[in-house]
Write a structure and sequence with these properties.
Zincin_1_sf; Zincin-like; 3 strands; about 45% helix; three-stranded mixed sheet; mainly alpha
Length: about 130
């Protein structure tokens, strides 16, 4: 009998992401204490519409909220800052690469943390491309 392997669950992806947060330097972890981390299979219809996505596989993660530089003047009723990781698109990217799932979760999470600190996609790409 062949054992059927199942893809990692939402909870397993969440555990990987939580482990990444725990490895961040204390200064970054402190800023993330009030940021929710949510793992969902796909972006919802509102995200699809606002981001003008053709497919729910077109986005691996999303930061929703006000970046660190905008803190202190939150409007009444503002939703908490949230980092979303989208499991199915991350699993597809992982399946098509030689990188580990942990590497993919780390990459997406750190990218979204960059947005929390006010960095644009271009800023993040420049940092990633810079020699170490």
């Amino acid at each position: 009998m062949i054992a059927q392997l199942r893809p990692p669950s939402l909870d397993q992806i969440d555990a990987l992401a939580q482990a990444v947060v725990e490895r961040l330097p204390p200064l970054f972890r402190d800023h993330l204490r009030s940021v929710l981390l949510r793992v969902e299979d796909f972006p919802d219809d509102e995200v699809m519409r606002v981001m003008e996505l053709e497919s729910p596989f077109d986005i691996l993660g999303l930061y929703s909220g006000r970046h660190v530089g905008m803190k202190g003047d939150e409007p009444t009723g503002a939703l908490p800052d949230t980092i979303y990781l989208y499991r199915r698109p991350i699993l597809d990217a992982w399946a098509e690469s030689t990188d580990s799932l942990e590497d993919w979760v780390t990459h997406v999470l750190i990218h979204e943390v960059g947005h929390h600190f006010g960095l644009s996609d271009d800023d993040i790409e420049a940092i990633e491309a810079a020699p170490e």
